[in-house]
């Protein structure tokens, strides 16, 4: 498991290799990742946006950004946590992901970035 705390927000990541599959006559490796966001600060925050940099050793780096995560923009009171599962497809069996979440402090209305620690995706390891 990979973990990092930014401004009182702890991000924990666990990965899983889900096997290979063919899409449009090409072989892809399917990975799941489980992310837990814990609010260890004294303020109520809301996740508003995500930014991912996905590295595939056989492909170009892909940037994915957008509102929320898995269709939600969770609000976390102090000591709350939120966990979600998502995934990605890589052409190779080795890659990595990292990025950040944009959050807003609901008291001060200030936006801030929370680092998503870079984590490895590999067909050789079952989890980080």
What does this structure look like?
- The protein has 128 residues and is mostly beta strands.
- The chain has a single domain, classed as ApaG domain (Immunoglobulin-like).
- The termini are close together.
Shape: elongated
Q: How much strand?
A: over 45%
First CA to last CA: what distance?
A: 4 Å
Share of helix among residues? under 10%
The CATH homology group name: ApaG domain
- Find the structural class using helix and strand composition: mainly beta
Name of the CATH architecture: Sandwich
Per DSSP, the total helix count is: 0
Mean pLDDT comes to 95
Whole-number total of structural domains: 1
The SSE string, one letter per element, is: EEEEEEEEE
Brief description of this entry?
The protein has 128 residues and is an all-beta fold. Helix content is 0%, strand content 69%.
Task: Please tag this protein with its features.
mainly beta, 128 residues, 5-stranded antiparallel sheet, Immunoglobulin-like, single chain
Write the layout of secondary structure elements.
Elements (H helix, E strand, L loop, with lengths): L1 E5 L2 E15 L2 E14 L5 E12 L5 E6 L7 E2 L4 E10 L3 E12 L5 E12 L6
Antiparallel strand pairs: 1-2, 2-3, 3-7, 4-5, 4-6, 4-8, 8-9
């Amino acid at each position: 498991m990979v973990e990092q705390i930014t401004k009182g927000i702890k991000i924990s990541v666990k990965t899983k290799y889900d096997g290979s599959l063919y899409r449009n006559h090409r072989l892809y490796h399917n990975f799941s990742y489980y992310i837990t966001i814990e609010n260890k600060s004294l303020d109520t925050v809301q996740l508003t946006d995500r930014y991912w940099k996905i590295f595939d050793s056989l492909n170009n780096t892909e940037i994915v950004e957008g509102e929320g995560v898995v269709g939600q923009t969770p609000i976390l009171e102090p000591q709350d946590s939120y966990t979600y599962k998502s995934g990605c497809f890589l052409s190779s069996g080795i890659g990595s992901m990292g990025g950040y979440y944009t959050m807003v402090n609901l008291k001060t209305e200030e936006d801030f970035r929370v680092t998503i620690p870079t984590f490895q995706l590999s067909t050789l390891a079952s989890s980080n």
